[in-house]
Amino acid sequence: MKLKYFISFFALVALLASCSDDDSMTLLDEIQVSSSYVSIDEAGGSNTITLNAKEAWSFDAEELPAWLTVTPMNGGAGETQVTFSAPAAPDGRTTVLHVKCADKTQTINVIQGLSTVSEATCAEVIAGPESKTYRVTGTVDRIVNTTYGNWYLVDETGEVYIYGTLDAKGQTKNFLSLGLEVGDIVTVEGPKTLYNGTVELVDVTVINIQKSLVKVEGYDPEDATIPLEGGTVAINLSCKTNNGISVEIPDEAKDWLGIVSVSGGAEPVVIFRAPANTGGDRNATVVFKTTDDKGKEYTAQATIYQKGSIVAATVAEFLAAEIGDTQYRMTGVITELYTADKQGKSFTIRDYSGSVLVYRAEGFIESGAKVGDVVTVVGKRGAYNGNPQMVSGVFEELVHVVTPMTIDEFLDQEDNPNVYYMLTGTITEIANPTYGNVYIEDETNSVYVYGTYPGWGATGDNRKNWLSTADIVVGDKLSVIGVKSTYNGTPQLANGIYFSHEKAE
């Protein structure tokens, strides 16, 4: 893999200019830092700056890359020593962090070693470390923002999202000046980041543009999406040679995507067909090729989508799935709100098979759901820093509102198989260790729990021997969810779902 130094003379001049401009940034009235540029040796180590704030302050935790540790991440009014630490990075890396205090934001640039640029394929970018700068060549597949320059670059190995494109003078918000079009072959340079499970190259510099002799001009339907029940999509092209075009469908899509027809001429149209889809969402990037009179090959690419069924999954099945566009539906108990002060749409759900973070599910806040409630969510399998999570999620249903209460209050409730309660009490007796039938008591009363199952959705053998598996014994404090019922005149909490427990001291 070829490497070159990324900091050129011009970049150094820009850096010095930025340092000069930064003098005003360090003199905000609400928050001041001794330096807004933090340097860490490429062999690894730490560096400390002084932060002085008039009110409570905090770093944006979402911006913190996996390789960097900042201590502390927040604090109160007054002077604080903030330390930045990182392990060795022979290729160098950089990142930008923001500290918020009151309504002001202070920028801090962290630089480790001398950044280098690696020439890479899309697949190598996806597999490579964050904050490293890459040079990659590929085809402009689709453009989604023409102000900042957000678009997708693809090559034969995969796809990378470009988030921000600098113009010829290194400025932002001037993407149209570059004249980039879908189908152009472009070489770009930029640092990698990971946002909400998506690999991005940020604020890239365009090194070279090779205008394609074959381009995608449009789609019918416009979103290039075939419905769940099957159908066709037409792709309109322009071809500036007299040598015609060829079409390639990737091997992994040949079992569901086929070509209906290909017309010739300067404005060819290729029609694709797909049958009904019984699985999840799927897509395929097809390639159109032509050659000039000297035999040089030019390509254009287009991605065809087909809607799929929503796949019902346990948390374990979701975690085992590949990252992609397939939609999954999961039901479980909310066990935690994820940094609720900043990410009010994010939460963790658990069923009998495991737990997973649901990142920013639309409709969650409006639902009024809280910790302990049983909910259903739909979304895609994603990951952040290697940690699985549901992304692009939608809060589909508040299945059961779960009301915490004392045992005495619970015993006053009417029997109802559709109303769920959470009780917390100390285990005084284990009547059936196989199914987890126990007696619990709190300061108000005691009650029989008919079944303590490992989580929502457990059936059959998955319900058995949960107490021993979790090392739950007499004397432990147990929180359990269930419904009020009566058996032989005795009230009980039926079909108990484990929520949490505390070991006896």
Task: Please tell me about this protein's structure.
The protein is mainly β. The protein has five domains: 3-112, Immunoglobulin-like (Sandwich), CATH 2.60.40.10; 118-210, Bacterial OB-fold (OB fold (Dihydrolipoamide Acetyltransferase, E2P), Beta Barrel); 214-306, Immunoglobulin-like (Sandwich), CATH 2.60.40; 311-400, Bacterial OB-fold (OB fold (Dihydrolipoamide Acetyltransferase, E2P)); 402-502, Nucleic acid-binding proteins (OB fold (Dihydrolipoamide Acetyltransferase, E2P), Beta Barrel), CATH 2.40.50. It is 8% helix and 53% strand. It contains six helices and 36 strands. The longest helix is centred in the N-terminal third of the chain and has 17 residues, at 9-25. The protein is flat. 34% of the residues are buried. Mean pLDDT is 88; it is low at 1-26.
